[in-house]
Prior knowledge:
Layout: H1 2-16, H2 20-53, H3 59-69, H4 74-85, H5 100-124, H6 128-136, H7 141-151, H8 153-168, H9 172-178, H10 188-198, H11 201-230
Amino acid sequence: MNEILLAFRKAFYLIITLDRELIEIVSLSLCVSLTAVLTASVAGILSASLLAFKRFPLRGAIISILNTFMGLPPVVVGLLLYLILSRSGPLGFLGLLYTPSAMLIAQAILAFPIIAAMSYASINSVSPDIRLAALGLGATRVQASIAVVRDARYGIFSSVMAGLGRVMAEVGAVLIVGGNIAGYTRVMTTTIALEYDKGNFSLAIALGLILLLISLCINSVMYLLQRRASG
């Protein structure tokens, strides 16, 4: 019991004193995850808009695939990216394996189907009368589509926050393609797993507390957005 209390005391000390290693790990985690979600958001929202407003062959199949890939196993993504980015892989010449860029790509792939599928559902739930009214008032098809997307903005924001929550807690893919290199590709989730194995619980607990705080912030924003949308 005393060892547990001591570990928590050291963890709080690391947070309060802004330990350099702790700050570097948290900063890299936020940088990679936020950039990945931003990339996935642009691609996901554009894809969702295209699926919602255009009718083309295999549209239904694409929607089904997006819904299926919302639960895409991170280790599968990590393994496939490893095979692609390794020296013997088709993109090995880029030298991206075991870099923050590889982790960014992995997280963007994981976030994309979540953001795209949830954004499509939000856009598709908007009343068709809004689009028809915009067209009737002389708006172009693009302007009418933007009006619908604007009306679905709270649901779209929720999808972005859901994607961020997914990648922030991800460990399998970034561990495979990032390598968990100290001072270079070591993020919060991979550090927690490593420090647990080493028995250094203080750093693991400190990072776990920060991760929980970030998760609380994400869930709070999603709750507020859902209340705003339902209001």
